[in-house]
Amino acid sequence: MGAKFRLSPVARISAGLVALLFTLLVAFDVVFGLVPSETEQLRQLRGAASENLAVQITTLISVGDYKTATRTIEEIMRRNDQIRSVAARRKDGQILVQAGDHARFWVPPSEGRSTLDHVRVPVFADRQPWGEIEISFAPATPSSLRGWLTHPSVLLAGVLVLSGFLAFYLYLRRALQYLNPTAVIPERVRTALDSLAEAVVVLDTKGRIILSNARFRRFNGGEQTELQGRSAAALAWASKAWPAGAGQPPWLRAMTERAALQDQPLQVVLPDEAPLQMLMTCAPIEDGYGRLRGCMVTFRDVTDLHRTNEQLRATLRDLEASRHQIREKNKELVQLATRDSLTGCLNRRAFFAEVEPLFESSRNDGRPLACLMVDIDHFKQINDRYGHAVGDRVIQAVAATLAAGMREGEPLCRYGGEEFCAMLPGASLEDATRVAERLRHAIENTVARRLPDVEGLQVTASFGVAVTVEAMNALPDLIKFADEGLYRAKRAGRNRTRRTVYMESAADTQTPA
Hints:
By secondary structure, the protein is of the alpha+beta class. The protein is built from 17 helices and 14 strands. A hairpin with a 4-residue loop joins β11 and β12. α2 (about 40-60) packs antiparallel against α3 (about 65-80), α14 (about 380-385) packs across α15 (about 390-405) and α15 crosses α16 (about 430-450). The longest helix is centred in the middle third of the chain and has 36 residues, at about 305-340. The radius of gyration is 58 Å and the shape is elongated. Residues about 505-513 have low confidence and may be disordered.
């Protein structure tokens, strides 16, 4: 895109002065009549020429010398190119003498009165109307563009405008060198301002540009003479940053509040360039008497820093996403390492790692720790009758029923193929037995209903219960005695609970058939 053409301030002022001068001349001419009316002068000249011509023609016609009258008219037309046609017409309408294409050029004036282009001179004989002399002149006003351009009035106005503009331009160009505030600034000071990495501009109290350095002019796309005197708020980037209704620009606010505004964020949008991220500082300027004289505005380019911060934030977002993925993967690894893949219960290694502290705590503080061993009854028959796929679903359903019936902090483990183990911290032998009975009834009444598509399926489980005592030294002892109770329940007919007390054996409650 080409650079937009713009007149310099000197040219604009010169054009304004020429327009003002021309307007004043027209106004004075209208009021006082300083310039003679060209139309009136032309009317007087044509009137006098028409009367003289009429006298000559009338004299020749009165003696019957029509040929001489015609030659006289032709000679006058040859000398005066303003006359297009002439005719002597009697009052009965008969033309006695004519020259030129009178039928083409003559247009009878309306209401019988002569006009500037068509003149009628009445002729009398013996004080009685004889006829009239009709004279057609060339149009007083041009009828084409070329005619207007060559018209004396237009030529005079054009010469006045051009010569006035040139005179004002040369004079102002010379005078403004002394009025330019930058002219009084030493060259070394201007050089120092132009060498600054920050963009600097000095404004007057109205927000108009007085002085700017090279950096400011560069991102405004203009020379100092083009920026000087312009409103800073009217610059393209400023009108986008503070559109109408968005409030005062910071430099006007700083002058209003008489306080500096530090590091105001600003985005400067330039044509065909990436936006510049700026930090703007506005400091009001006061004289020795405390009167406000203007404002100094500096722009610090932080585009690279902003871009670096954006890249850093993007990197942090990527790192956070990676950390989230790692956490999810770790959860998956922990799940794989500690949980049974079929049921989601703890595997044996994770179960022992979690229960060992519970067992040690039970020994140290004397609180009981109960162990439940659970085995699905006749599971081999289920596999043989319905297949291993149904068997897996039965194991999953039993595990879900056990997990639903236990509280938080009570670990549940898939101990073997169809065997489960659970720990109940703080539960006495009676409490553990009641829990076992509740879970056993839940398995008997709900597991088969969880698999409605398997006809004739019945699922029960046998439970063994044991509780820690002081003489018990290791966790496997507790599990061993709970397992012994489980075998006793299975030998007693399955679908029942048996408990085992350390160092003694006693039959427990037998569930009804």
